[in-house]
Records
---
Amino acid sequence: MPEEIYQVIEEKLLPEEAVKTSQLSSKWTHVWKHMTRIEAFLPPNLQLPNNRDIISFFNQFLCRHQGDKILKFVVCVWFTPHLSTHVDAWTDHAIRKRVEHFCLELNAEFYILNPRLFECESLIWLKVRSCLVQLPNSIKLKNLREIYLQQDLNINIAPNPHSQRLIFHEGVMGVMVPTVVSLKAPKAKEVIFSGCMARRDYQGEKMAECTKVSFDIGHMFEFCKKPGRRGRAVNLFTTEELMEVIEGNFIWLLSNFEQIRDLKLCNWSVQMLAIGERRNQEKLSFDCTRQRLETNLRKWELPGIAYMLNSCPELVHLTLCTPSIEEEIELPLDYLSKHDFEAVGYLIAQIEAIKTLKNLREVEFQRKKGEHQCWVADEFKLEEFFKCVEFEEEPLDLLRAVAPNLERRIFVSDKMRVEAS
């Protein structure tokens, strides 16, 4: 068997499994010492044979590692304070081996990330979960292209100015978390927000070179339900005043990307825009030519759709698709008493208010859930496709009116696709 095959097999194993292969034959004796992909999952109190604990084993494993290069280094550990020096040492080992992909997943926000990681010039991809990040005065991440930050981080995100992709993920970690996130990625071409957006404050600078942004923060619905729903006892939206704080954070983040060309919003984002639209909040203006909105065309998503159509006069391609998380924000009574509206006919009533979308050429409706997923060729029926939609063909009627140069309407289910001129 060729030597490279030994290496391929070895690198699909965990360290404790890879070491055991040295007993298979003489050809396997030293293969594990040259692994270029190391992935370690270190649960608490795990005992290996001969009463060796997993942390001591992993330390010895790295000491005996002889390869001069690590392409991928992943460590997931249940952190306790006494492990700080061990985690620092593991990071140093990866840096010495010129690591390219580095991932550290902890469960403790009090561990301070090894600052030497920011001098690792070989690093291309970085993922950090649940720790403190204190950026040094000098950062030498000249090859870093992607950074993924997750969970409870108090950080000034200022990756290498050449970083092209920033993924910012926050888990469901609390309500109005007091830590501050400052976003600075001046050369980023793509930015993705995912998970939650539950901090009290966001700061940063406009990312002038960014062309693609996604807000996939549907887990914010966890904080927009009545007490007791989904196992939670907190609802951020108990009053209009609290609602405005969250809305203000979201609008501020969105305002940093008015120059983008490609924008994706989850249904929570669409509903937040709808809330502001009913209060006649001042609209943002985007240069985007492609827009993807997740929506079930429910009542409190309609004003958000109208908001985005009015904010993107250069739009060329629009996609309306079913969301991955199907929820609705439960609005406070003081807001509803002032801003409630009649849903049926709402979109049609917006025809005169929405600016003419003279560049809109293509609209795609994606409904990948529900009964109407298949149809006989040449027998596609709009009324069946929109059967599960409360307002049926109103979105289509609106688009026909405001987009005089519309050329293609595309209807997509989980199994079928049809185009209409």
---
Amino acid sequence: MFTLRKLLWSNIGLSCFHCSTLYLTFCYRYWLQEEEDIFLDSTTCVMAFRLLRLSGYKVSSEPLIQIFEDHFSDSPEGHLKNTGVALELYKASQIIIHPNELALEKQKSWLTHLLKEQLSNGVIRADRSNILISQEVDDVLKFPLCANLTV
């Protein structure tokens, strides 16, 4: 059975140049219809946003604002458990196409601080299971514009 979530996860690392028109059409249609395939999973939603924005689609950033609020509102415990979501949101917050997207600017600033703090405090441990995400966080913070060269 076709699901957008499977397609997004199976195509991580492909540049947007290599994404087929059909794939983008499905993704965009699902976005406009607010399909559960995209919007039930935070990471999938953020990746779809990045893919669409980098491919020239003018999709709303409202779902990202909601994900940010859901995961990082006032819960200190939530901040520690959601490094993957924070990293994806940080990458997506780099793609500002409208001058009135101040919420994305604020989100980017807050997530920059959070990810730097997690790296320096050792919250993202460099054990076998987390070494890749730790390195990715470090790389994305050092080179934010390169974070969106691959989706």
---
Amino acid sequence: MAENETAEAGEITELKKKLQRVVENMLEEDDYGIEKTTEALKNLSSLAALKLKKPLLGLDETVLLEKCKCPISGEIMSDPVVLASGQTYDRPQIQNWLEEGNLTCPQSKQVLSNSVPIPNCLVRELISDWCKKHGIALPTPYQDINGETSTKLDRIYLHSLLEKLSSSSLSDQKEAAQELRRLTKTAPSCRAVLCEFTDAISKLLSPLSESKVEEDTDLQENLVTTVLNLSTHDGKTKRLIAETPRAITLLVESVKFGTIETRSNAAAALFSLSTLKSNKCMIGNSGAPGALLDLLREGHPSAIKDTAEAILSLCIAPVNREKFIEIRAVREIVLKIHTGILTDQLLAILALLSTHPNAITELAELDTMRRLLQIIRDSTSERTKENSVTVLYHMCSRDRTLLLMLGPEENEMRILAELADTGNPRARRKAGDIIKELHKAFPAKR
């Protein structure tokens, strides 16, 4: 608790310093523009949200509940935004107020210097946490009559953050990157708006250098994670990211270098992008197979799942299987399977790679057959059994020596015979096909 309070105090101090700098700049300039105003409002919003967090740490939660309600509607806010007055409202309520021609803050009665509602992401997070804790459904996000969850005002704010990434000040870049990461995680509307800017991805990645992508690890982590968040939006966004010059290259470099969270998120972003069929070959030709295999080999617990999913998705394209086989991915995956790590996902990859003739030699050398039979016998996962027998089928279909080796094993343990009776339809079919070939090879065993 003491550590949390110390960290919170430090964050408040830092926010106050940022707010002070912005306000001083505004006072020195006659025409300071909307960007400075939105930045000041963001800092005020963050300070207010930190104050509101205290009830979550064990203080009066009834106070938190009241603060999460819109002053206009009295209901829990679905899309909290903050005005120039520093007051937070639910977007649909305050937009109606402003569209009626009102120029003042409903609560403070202060004349507004501008009518730009800024998303209050921290308050939104507090509302989300409170609802989850109490088993209450989150309020449905507001949609206007055109079905849009964002406005021109959101675009102004997000555009200002993208422009800030081009600043010569590293602290400005890091602040903008952190805010974009938070917005793209918590607000689907912000993901949609950012994707409307044709140069958004280029500007987003502009602070990163291909030659030393991890020059500032915090900045790299926030930017890579923002790309990951955006990549989950829709197919059009996946295509936009993949076709942006340097985007795939920087993600591949971030799989190699950076914090383990950055590397894992870069792998997750490559997986997300590769779910679009047209991106698979592009990613496969970018050097991603080698980078992902190296990360898989390291076996870091927080990165291995995202890495395996990225490899599996890429291997759906036959041309990428060839690339993974050339860099001896079969060996690495079999060795990982022998350790019992992430068996389901790795066997799914192996099932795809085993369709390539060059994979069979390595599979035979690694004494894979006995391990696969053991997995079929011991596993409770239908998917795992199916992928294991699929690999066995491909091995025996391409190498009769392996089939002859399998005969005595099956005659003794009857593992495939049992799978042919109890497995899922595909597993039963594969097991049955192997048994038929065994009967042909060993007619006396019928």
